[in-house]
Amino acid sequence: MKKLILITALLASPLFAQTKEKIEVPYVAFPIKMGKGFDAVQANCLMCHSFGYIINQGRQSKAFWRGKIDKMITHFKAPIGEEAAKSVTEYLYKHYGNGKLK
Ligand code: HEC
Question: Hey, how many other C-beta atoms are within 10 angstroms of the C-beta on 95?
Fold first, then answer.
């Protein structure tokens, strides 16, 4: 029985191997800008995907952001009302816009 425990311990020990080097996990910042309209994003967008999914698009025009919201509504059946769609568009354009309307 003791042998069996010893063998098991020896076989399992590599699982607990430790490295000497310090491992650094890259830190990826997802700067979420708080502000007017963010509550609408939280309530209407984040139930399906993360915020990163949205801002990975980079800075875009107002029409682009509105188009994405319309796409969410028509293609993915997102239950987003007109008021919320407007708030989210304003928010995204203000914080992640490129200054162009179209
Ligand atoms: C009902 C679920 C749902 C909701 C709610 C939703 N989305 Fe999406 N969204 C998706 C899916 C599914 C995809 C992935 C599409 C793909 O991979 O092609 C996506 C992808 C995206 C993308 C990536 C670009 C693209 O065209 O696919 C953006 C930007 C986006 N959503 C913005 C929004 C915004 C802004 C809101 C809130 C107003 C929102 N989404 C709400 C389902 C949703």
Answer: 18
Q: Ligand 1 mean position to 27 CA, how many Å?
A: 25
How far, in Å, from the CA of 26 to the mean position of ligand 1? 26
Exposed/middle/buried for residue 38 (C-beta within 10 Å: 0-12, 13-18, 19+) = middle
Q: What is the pLDDT of residues 24-80, one digit of tens each?
A: 876 666 678 888 999 999 999 999 999 989 999 999 999 999 999 999 999 999 999
CA of 98 relative to ligand 1 center, distance in Å: 20
Residue 94 in contact with residue 35, Cβ under 8 Å?
A: yes
Burial 59-89 (b: 16+ CB within 10 A, else e): ebebebbbebbeebbeeeebebeeebbebbb
Amino acid at 57: Q
